Amino acid sequence: MPLVIAIFVTFFVCSASNASGVSMSDDLLSVCFDQLKYKYKPLVSSKYPGGMPPLADSDLSAIEVVVGSGFRFRDDLRRFYLEVSHLQFEGTAPSRAHGGISSSLYQLITNYYKSDAWVPFCDDSDGYYGISQEEGDIRFFSNVPDSVFAEETYLNLVAFLQSKFLRS
Predict the structure, then answer these.
(1) pLDDT tens for residues 43-102?
(2) Residue 25 falls within a domain, yes or no?
(3) Which of 23, 119, 121, 150 has its CA 20 to 30 A from that of 75?
(4) Which domain CATH number covers 48?
């Protein structure tokens, strides 16, 4: 419980830096990723019977090149995909980027990305979650008119991951 309280309190000072020059948001992201790796195991499938490996940067780079127009994943979202996207999450799960332009992430981006400030990264049956390219906040974009989930927002990627995947 003290770890959760410490994370909750410290993610409000994400712009601060520690003595080594690493931002608090990087520290919190690392702690969050460590918690995810502890709670979830790599996805096992017929293609990956020993467990899906961590994503290669070349898969994300391939998506960036094909989307074009200077598209680039935010650093926090890039880290998420490289470090923990191969895990088997419960419930709503981020779209997979394994396979580059043949991935479900690429399909989600080509379906919804309109060269605006929001990058879709997590598909859901009633819509998708997008992350702001500038601020890093996250919101749900509903495909269902007047959906109660249309107001679902998160301060940052850490808050989203804590809420969706780390709360029991």
Answers:
(1) 898 988 999 898 989 989 999 898 887 888 999 999 999 999 999 988 777 888 888 778
(2) no
(3) 150
(4) 3.40.1580.10
Domain membership of residue 68 as a residue range: 39-166
pLDDT digit string, tens, across residues 143-159: 877 765 667 899 999 99
| Tokens (6 digits) for 125 | 């049956």
Decide if 104 is inside a domain: yes
Strands 138-142 and 127-132: antiparallel
DSSP string, 104-131: HHHHHHHHH--SSSEEEEEEETTEEEEE
CB-based burial of residue 101 (10 Å sphere; 0-12 exposed, 13-18 middle, 19+ buried)? middle
What does pTM read for this prediction? 0.78
Question: Domain tally for the chain?
Answer: 1
Helix, strand, coil shares of the chain, percent, nearest 5, are 45, 15, 40
What DSSP designation does 148 have?
G
Residue 44 in domain: yes
